[in-house]
Design goal:
By secondary structure, the chain is an alpha/beta fold. It is 26% helix and 24% strand. The protein folds into three domains: 256 residues, HUPs (Rossmann fold, 3-Layer(aba) Sandwich), CATH 3.40.50; 122 residues, Ribosomal Protein L25, Chain P (Beta Barrel); 94 residues, Ribosomal Protein L25, Chain P. The protein has a seven-stranded mixed beta sheet with strand order 12-25-26-27-23-24-13, with helices on one face. Strands 21-18-19-20-14-17-22 form a seven-stranded mixed beta sheet, with no helix packed on it. Strands 4-5-6-7 form a four-stranded antiparallel beta sheet. It is elongated and about 100 Å long. The chain binds one RNA strand through helix 5, strand 6, helix 7, strand 11 and helix 12.
Amino acid sequence: MVDETPAPPEGFIRQIIREELAAGKIDGVVTRFPPEPNGHLHIGHASAICQNFLVAETFGGRCHLRFDDTNPAAEEAHYADRMMEDIRWLGFDWGEHLHYTSDYFEQIFEFACVLLREGTAFVCDLSSEEIAAHRGTLKEPGTASPYRERSPEENLDLFQRMRAGEFAPGERVVRAKIDMGSSVLPMRDPVLYRIQATAHPRTGTTWPIYPMYDFAHSLSDAIEGITHSLCSHEFVDRRPLYDWILEHVGIPTPRPRQIEFGRVGLTHTVMSKRHLARLIDAGIIPGWDDPRMPTLSGMRRRGYTPESIRNFCTGVGLTRQPKTVDLARLEFEIREHLNEVAPRFMGVQRPLKLIVENYPEDGSEELSAVNNPQDPTAGSREVPFSRELWIEQDDFAEDPPKKFHRLTPGKEVRLRYAYLVTCTDVVKDADGQVVEVHCRYDPETRGGDAPDGRKVRGTIHWVSARHAIPAELRLYDVLFRDEEPDPRDEGFEDALNPDSLKTLDPAWLEPSLAEAPAGTRLQLERLGYFCVDPDSTADRPVLNRIVGLRDTWGKLAKRGKA
RNA sequence: UGGGGCGUCGCCAAAUGGUAAGGCAGCGGCCUUUGGAGCCGCCAUUUGCAGGUUCGAAUCCUGCCGCCCCAGCCA
């Protein structure tokens, strides 16, 4: 299904499945990804998506997409559409198996009747506060509801009347009759059904009652023939309930099996919807698809490729251990992928004028530049050259630090794909700022080669001032300075990186970039990988920096300064 | 001892009683018309700690320590 992702590492779940297969307990594998349509998918979800789809794929099975829509008060239909878009973008296909828990409401209702009939569930009239009070605490057992021993007849009758809409929300619930003394809290007569007055996005007002997660999820798994219900670790405590429900409702074996894995987080960001929403509400971040967000829509807009995200997810493995993976690992994956496929261009972020004194005043010529040194089939393009160029401010130093191989008075550098030039003069403004650099070129070095074989250490990029197109560059950095920002901390928002976005405008790009459509990914040589943003207009591209190139000079310079 | 879970290099992670893989990050060097890419080398005498069993322990046993999850009519 996904060609470019290397085979994922085995992991404990695949081992378990192999054993079950070998023992003849199961004869196939069906998993599911079960999001609630009430938010935006992020890189943590991507991990769950990859695991579910890829574990199934390993065994020639399938993975369903199921929207867990049992709480109309919290859910909206448009979220489901966005989620499908994200999952498809990641490269996964659920085929015929797009499901909604709400499709099973009738069956789930029948299963509840089974429990009521068997005397393993009851209708409880306690208020939600009273139920909480009866639940006990972590260390003390709970006490039984006074309604626990109602007869099956009365329970069934009451449940039918709940369904008929005879009661107000909160008035009655259906509870499993398990064990108020259990040390596992979800087993203390958990609520299975509650009354809700909200209209449901898919079933409208046909149901005044809705099943709770534990009841709906386990049964939906069973209904769909899910063999392995993979979920994150905080559901471990609910596994006994998951099993209890399937058993007591009479699901034949082999029943679906819940297996929990550790969540995946990323350094320098947070995943929780609530805290990300806070950044948006506070106006710090404009939206869920902002390129700084860890959401899939944000990462897509930033320019991350699906391959890089998949490789990240499978690369960090599937274990029980919760993990916070170094952002550098993600950056490694996107560089690795884009190095292979991104065409190269030249562009100048912070322009400084370079005048080639001995180049004809009105002259210009086209020079050939390689599109991708990693890919011979990518061909080459023509780049215009003229007397006045833009070069990077950082590529000139009047008083260079040690090991500075770029342009400096009296020294010779290579203008990439153009000529060898020697710096002859510097023009400054009244404040002593360098505003213009002058040089002379060697006409014998067209293309950048020295016929006499002389070695030139530095190569810098450039763009012809007369031909260049202006652009806006958006340089992104981490959302939080802290490696592991803790939303529980008082100063949580103080930990935000004030420089998470730097806008450079105007930057100058070689003209071949004039009509690059939104979504185009490319490398600006020596600067980084960029992606054309939808904010671009016909005469002014906007480029998002996905990630910078590895910068050993930057590290050197920083270290030297410190 | 309320219950459950997790502890192997800065971050991930393998190792399933036979003597601590690999990746990322970092650090040296080579090479280079991207200070990119590539290549070479270095980077855990030790697996949270302390004991024990064993010819042999990250793996088994005992005790301890640390962190996380659970008291929604959310998922």
